[in-house]
Write a structure and sequence with these properties.
Blueprint: H1 24-42, H2 49-56, H3 60-66, H4 70-94, H5 99-110, H6 115-128, H7 133-159, H8 168-188, H9 195-211
Length: 215
């Protein structure tokens, strides 16, 4: 689920005489927005201040003026992307007419031809949590909200008589763990895993756990 803004080509640097002075918060946002597709394509380890400046169409000095380090830019970019990504998933689930449809929409959205970019950034975010407690707390909160969305869909399906589950919260934890594992396999392709197969594994898990079948 990659937004259009994440697929825009890098901006060309603008001559100083042609630049319009912008408020600090606007310029910071512009720089962070430009960093999102860079990280999604290359990973944080391969993105430096020069690449960010070129993508944003500003000078290196502008980046260092607004941010203490390139890591600060990359950190804000990861958070921005992840919040957008899960907001889109939440919106899709909210439109579902039933619990089962909501889970199907989530599964379809988790694995598409575009979502490798998201998963690359998600695992970078995950790794950052090992070094930075702010990231660790943010990721824990994100998992809590994600688990709650899944739990709510399962509970909804149970009320509708479609699902049979004694502990929707436990199911949510295991569903998200399987999704993470499939995403990592999908990124590394060892062994190979297609989008269709990743979706099929999740659907089989849902059927086995909530419907007593593995169709």
């Amino acid at each position: 689920m990659t937004s259009r803004s994440e697929r825009r080509p890098p901006r060309r640097a603008v001559a100083a005489s042609a630049r319009t002075r912008q408020p600090t918060e606007v310029r910071r946002r512009l720089i962070v927005e430009a960093a999102v597709p860079l990280i999604a394509e290359r990973g944080t380890a391969a993105v430096g201040v020069r690449e960010v400046a070129a993508a944003a169409g500003v000078s290196v000095g502008t980046v260092t003026y607004h941010f203490e380090s390139v890591q600060e830019v990359l950190s804000e970019a990861m958070v921005l992307h992840i919040e957008r990504y899960y907001a889109a998933l939440s919106e899709a689930a909210a439109k579902a007419t039933s619990g089962p449809e909501g889970l199907r929409l989530l599964i379809d959205a988790l694995f598409t031809d575009d979502t490798d970019r998201h998963w690359r950034m998600w695992f970078d975010y995950w790794n950052a949590g090992e070094r930075d407690q702010t990231f660790a707390r943010g990721q824990a909160e994100r998992y809590e909200r994600w688990h709650e969305e899944i739990r709510a869909l399962v509970e909804r399906g149970r009320v509708e008589g479609e699902f049979h589950c004694e502990d929707p919260a436990d199911f949510a934890l295991r569903f998200s763990a399987l999704a993470d594992g499939l995403a990592l396999r999908r990124l590394r392709q060892v062994p190979a895993l297609t989008v269709a197969d990743a979706r099929r594994h999740l659907r089989r898990f849902v059927d086995a756990e909530l419907r007593g079948t593995a169709a």
